[in-house]
Amino acid sequence: MLLWPDPVTLSCFLWTTKKPLKEDDMPAPFNGHPPISVKYASEDAFIERVLKESLEFRWSDDGKIVLIIAKNSPICLLAGVPRISYTKAVKQPGPYGLQWDDTEFKDKTLLFQSG
């Protein structure tokens, strides 16, 4: 059993295995995993099948930033200070996080010695 020392304070929308929905077709309330709407979904949001073995988590040396990699490509960057996340799964800011920012990615990855 995996125990977390602290409560979750930041999340990131990684992908969906279901096609994004039109805003009018979004169910409310959600049962299980919430879908993403076409308004926010990028071309990278839909991944039909991801093997857990293809996921990698890289932590910065100070432990405040985590980079999530799928199929050898970064898909999400979570920064603890300030609490913010960037994901390739969204195309505009909203309830699913912020769209990927290459400048932020390059700046933040300087904090990784082994990445």
The neighbouring-strand order within the major sheet is: 1-2-3-4-5
Helix content: under 10%
Query: Could you give a short account of the major beta sheet?
Result: 5 strands, mixed
Mean of residue pLDDT? 81
In terms of structural class, how would the helical and strand content be classed?
mainly beta
How would you describe the shape?
globular
SS elements, strand count: 5
Q: How many separate domains make up the residues?
A: 1
Q: Could you give the order of the helices and strands?
A: EEEEEH
- Helix tally? 1
Radius of gyration: 15 Å
- Quaternary state reads single chain
Portion of residues in beta strands equals 15-25%
Write up this protein.
With 115 residues, the protein is mainly beta. The protein has one domain (23-109). 7% of the residues lie in helices and 21% in strands. It has one helix and five strands, in the order βββββα. It has a five-stranded mixed β-sheet with strand order 1-2-3-4-5, with helices on one face. The longest helix has 8 residues, at 102-109. The relative contact order is 0.21. The mean pLDDT is 81.
List the helices and strands and how they pair.
Layout: E1 55-59, E2 65-70, E3 73-79, E4 84-87, E5 98-99, H1 102-109
Parallel strand pairs: 4-5
Antiparallel strand pairs: 1-2, 2-3, 3-4
In short:
This protein has 1 helix and 5 strands, in the order E-E-E-E-E-H. By secondary structure, the protein is mainly beta.
